[in-house]
Design brief:
Elements (H helix, E strand, L loop, with lengths): L4 E3 L13 H31 L3 H26 L4 H28 L9 H28 L2 H29 L5 H7 L2 H13 L1 E4 L2
Antiparallel strand pairs: 1-2
Helix pairs in contact: 1-2, 1-4, 2-3, 2-5, 3-5, 3-6, 3-7, 4-5, 5-6, 5-7
Length: about 210
């Protein structure tokens, strides 16, 4: 069935056999790491964002909250078994749609309301820099395991982790541009460019698309 995209519900997809317990343990470890780090991002991102009146940081913290929920959803899926795959993938898709709406809303407000544009924040810059470096590595590990476990839910969660990295770079660029060049609207414009990626991954998760048989 070369070249034919199949859903993860199809028993013939990929290897056609259940994933190993070692893969399940690896997924759970990654999700525990995600939950711990996302919790920190939520607390620092939203807290510092409110203190500094920074839409970029507050948006990043809110996005981290969505990703925290997603990590919990996927962890639950790998605790109860593949029977929860369809629901987990659907919930992950909903969370991605929420991110899309949030990007549009916060970016629009950042462009139209000067008082809500990002301000410089030392804590925020450090937080975003760490996230920008660490999230791509975590996302790559999740994508690898999503393929080996044929999990659309984990694939969607990996996409959200990657989006977190993009948003971190965007937020970091926005804070630095505002602090150095006083270009406060740069991160709002760049964030809007993420929408096609977010919506594509949301649609894939909603349809349960992941595997391609070679």
């Amino acid at each position: 069935m070369k070249g034919t995209q199949m859903t993860c519900e199809d028993k013939a997809c990929c290897t056609g056999s259940p994933h190993s317990e070692a893969d399940s343990r690896a997924v759970r470890r990654l999700q525990y790491i995600s939950i711990a780090w996302m919790s920190l991002e939520v607390i620092l991102g939203i807290g510092e964002g409110i203190r500094a009146r920074s839409v970029a940081l507050t948006a990043f913290g809110a996005d981290s909250l969505v990703e925290l929920i997603s990590a919990l959803v996927v962890l639950r899926r790998f605790q109860v078994g593949p029977a929860g795959e369809r629901r987990a993938a659907f919930l992950s898709a909903i969370l991605l749609y929420i991110i899309a709406v949030y990007i549009v809303t916060t970016s629009t407000l950042g462009l139209l309301v000067p008082a809500l544009r990002p301000e410089a924040s030392g804590v925020g810059i450090v937080l975003l820099l760490i996230a920008a470096i660490g999230m791509p590595l975590l996302g790559k590990a999740k994508r690898r395991l999503a393929q080996s476990t044929a999990s659309a839910a984990l694939q969607a969660d990996a996409a959200q982790t990657s989006i977190c990295a993009y948003m971190a770079w965007i937020g970091l660029g926005g804070l630095l541009a505002n602090a150095i060049f006083h270009v406060a609207w740069a991160d709002s414009v760049a964030a809007l460019l993420l929408l096609p990626l977010v919506l594509r991954e949301a649609n894939r998760a909603r349809r349960g698309e992941l595997c391609t048989c070679d």
